[in-house]
Amino acid sequence: MDHLRYSGLPFEKQRAAFFAIVAADPLLAKTLAQVRTLALPDWLVVSGALYNSVWNHLTGMPSGYGIRDVDLFYFEDSDLSYEAEDAVIRRAARHFEGLALPVEVRNQARVHLWYPQKFGQLCPRYTSSSESVSYFASKTHAVGVRFDADGQLDLVAPFGLDDIFSFRITPNKVMDNQRTHEAKGKRAREMWPEIEVVPW
Question: Is the pTM of the predicted complex or chain greater than 0.90?
Fold first, then answer.
């Protein structure tokens, strides 16, 4: 079971392996470099592009396999209007032209305003991009990276990395996101049959 070679290791070893995989992935490395020059406040590349790239690396799949887009969070609460976020989204679209994957940009300071209408339940008012990651439907998906002030990769992983390296999608019951957990788990198993989806 070579794809599980990092499963169960201490967090520091998993973090080193995670950073090595991210840095070596051509799609991710190029995208992160582009994101950095966009210089959004409190930015964070999160979720699928990261853990899917790890699974691709460990199962011998090509870079970009199973990845639909790159999720880019930022946090700006001085103007919560739709128009302010839309202006950032349009600026980002121009900035990321030519990248292999589309980049989805969302201001985490505004999520509580549209979430109830889209998902039928309330959502807390987040105070940072990092905080929003801890509310993802699956703990496995709660991962983000950015560059720190010294240009080193910085990791946000409130539940650690063992679920990713164990190919295990574990529910996060902080909100009622059972449908999302199950839908994402089903799709992941179709792409990477090595994955185990823990029932809600």
Answer: yes
pLDDT (0 to 100) of residue 1 = 63
Closest by CA to 110, choosing from 78, 135, 157, is 78
In degrees and rounded to multiples of 5, residue 176 shows phi and psi of -85, 80
Q: Which two tokens stand for residue 192?
A: 């990477």
Q: What is the pLDDT of residues 93-148, one digit of tens each?
A: 999 999 989 999 999 999 999 999 988 889 999 999 999 999 999 999 999 999 98
Return the percent helix, strand and coil in the chain, to nearest 5. Answer: 45, 15, 40
Cβ neighbours for 192, distance < 8 A, ≥ 6 positions apart: 55, 59, 61, 66, 167
In the chain, beta strands by DSSP E: 44-46, 70-74, 103-107, 144-147, 153-156, 168-169, 196-197
Residue 63's pLDDT band (cuts 50, 70, 90): very high
List the chain domain ranges.
2-197
Report the 10 Å Cβ neighbour count for 199: 8
CA–CA gap between residue 51 and residue 35 (Å, rounded): 18
Using DSSP, state whether 196 is helix, strand or coil: strand
Dihedral of CA 40/109/148/175: which sign?
negative
